[in-house]
Amino acid sequence: IRSATTSLTRGNFAKISSSDLSFFERTVGSSYVKTKDIDNYTCDWTKQMKGSSKCVLIPSSTEETSTILKYCAEKRIAVVVQAGNTGLVGGATPLFDEIILSTSRINNNFHLEESSGVLTLDAGIILADADYLLAEKGFMMPLDLGAKGSCQIGGCIAAGAGGIRLLRYGSLHSHLLGCTLVDGKGTIIKLGGSLRKDNTSLHTAHLTIGSEGQLGVITSVTMGVVPRPISILCAMLAVSSYSHCLRLLSLARSKLGEILSSFELIDGETMKCVERHLPIKNIFNEPHDFYLLIETHGSNGDHDGEKLNEFVEEALGAELAEDGVAAHSENERTHMWRLREESPIAAAKDGYIYKFDVSLPLEHFYRLTEETRKKLGTRARVYCYGHLGDGNSHLNVTTDGEDEELKKELSPFVYNWVVSHGGSISAEHGIGQLKRDYRSLGKSEEEISLIRSLKGVFDPHRILCPYKMIPSQE
Ligand code: S2G
Ligand code: ZN
């Protein structure tokens, strides 16, 4: 278990007293002030980042959240904001003894305006539950990710989640219309609104996307949702080279056009790792160097099926793919997606894991994996899967045990390589505690100073999520 506090010292925040706990109990009820058996809250999803905390508070409303934060601001009590705790960079995990404020009980309100496709929902509602409620009305959440069964919509916004259908539906910046934020002073602020077009001032709600709890607690979200596609189809291709993968992406864009929804990559090493650790088999009988998973979302199954089959035929005919198949049933589609969505689970079973989530210009996307393999040789196993259509690589490295030497050299190597090749050190997972030492990479001093000032506006005592994405000192 690794704590990233090696180079950190605890800020001069208050230590929790029994009178603080009594105040919290009076605010949220004693059942929702947890002081023991809180490992689920103090440890992250990868189980590699673990902190400690005096208590977990689980308010049921915006108002209770405001009361808590007003009190914590006054007492200078440090707070970690936590939603579904599915994050991968330890953003919701305490580093010293910050209290944890969980949004899990802020999950009562859900209102869909069917004519406009605008949804207002409480931040603690789980993504899969929101999508299920929308399905019966013919709508769909515009994002989907592996953690859908436990991530909450407020956490998705705060993390700036991307997921597997961004290629078709765009990022959260395309869908967020407004939100309710309780800032670091406990002030309840309505940001933005519910109109798809409102250009009357700064788009303040969008500041919360990727804010990682630094500016406040999102307690309610208003966003556009999308018509549920009538036809969802999938195909998988086996490919022998990365350059062919890129040519297939261009082919998919031209042949599938507006119905292309996902274009995911699994490299050969990752597929072997999946087969080694999970009860799922490759859909092809032979191993290949790359696998592409393509999903279409459309309104006419025959039309879409024709386009997808033509695409697969052309991929094979032009010898861009060594093998390829379109899913002929929901089971086959689910199998294809399990291979991709469970790649992270297989990698996590493969040993001590060093996870990356980088954006790169497509010509460099896979070179990073090759360079990392060359650098590490037999010291580690290197896997690559990700959203090729978005230029987002999930490079994952594993070793049999935690390797301090490797850890010291790996992140600097990867992040410097990424930034020097025009990429971003975090495409969708954020900074949290895992990447805090690299949070300024590629940013100008002026922008860093502006970000710190904005943090000061929303959280003047800097009690929210200290030691992470935004430096605590002015
Ligand atoms: C993905 C989530 C899991 C991971 O699979 O697309 O964003 O381990 C990731 O990277
Ligand atoms: Zn991803």
Automatic annotation (TrEMBL):
GO function term, MF aspect, one: FAD binding
Class in the EC hierarchy, top level: oxidoreductase
Cofactor(s) the record lists: FAD
Coiled-coil intervals: none
One family name in Pfam for this protein: FAD-oxidase_C
EC code: 1.1.99.39
GO cellular component terms given for this protein: mitochondrion
Catalytic activity, as annotated: (R)-malate + A = oxaloacetate + AH2
Keywords: FAD, Flavoprotein, Oxidoreductase
Stated family: Belongs to the FAD-binding oxidoreductase/transferase type 4 family.
UniProt-recorded name of the protein: D-2-hydroxyglutarate dehydrogenase, mitochondrial
Species of origin: Pristionchus mayeri
